[in-house]
Structures are given as structure tokens and as C-alpha cells.
Design goal:
By secondary structure, the protein is of the alpha+beta class. The protein has helices at residues 35-43, 47-58, 86-103; strands spanning 5-14, 21-28, 62-66, 80-84, 107-112. The protein has one domain. α1 (35-43) runs antiparallel to α2.
Amino acid sequence: MSMNIKIKAVAKAKIISTGEEFDDIHYLSVYQTPTKVTERIMRAENRLLEYEEYVTSISVDEVEPVFAEDDIFQEKGAVGYRVVNNGKDHLTELHTKIAHYSNKGYEIIFEAM
């Protein structure tokens, strides 16, 4: 069976009216990882850095056309081009979410599932 990495933010929470305590869990969006990569990440001293290195290793800059706002069917040709890198964008979003949850007292946990 294949194992993938999961990253979650966990905090203890309490319902004020009942006093009931529970774990507030938020799973962060991650790339699917091969089992060998998942194992390497879980063995790493810095799991986030290891995950970043994997994402960076499989990500490439791509040039995509940009079309005018009124050209919804892309019939008039490109008005320009831009460079995109989905891996870099993913890591930027991941860092933003980790910072958001960490600042609110959540613990960031890596799991192999």
C-alpha cells in the first residue's frame, strides 16, 4: 500500500456552554508523495524542509499565455505571457497557512498515511 504525507494543524478547543473539549483539526493541502519520499520526510529532522525540497525537485517554471479580459474563448491570441510555477505557489500558500495556524497556537503535525 502506498503512503502519502499529511500535514495537519491541531489545537485543543472547548465548547463554553458544555465544557466539552475536543481537537480542532485542519488538514493542509499537500502534494501526493511516493512512499519512499514519505518515508524520507518522516525520518528527516526538519520535515517541512524535506517536503519543500521534494516539491521543488518536481516543479518547473512554465510559460503560459495571458488573454484579454474580453477574450473569454481565447480566440484573439495572447496579449502577453507569464511564468508560473505551481510548486512555488503551493509552498507559498503552505507557509502562509502554517504561519496562520502557528500564530493561533496550533501544533503543526506531519503524518504518513
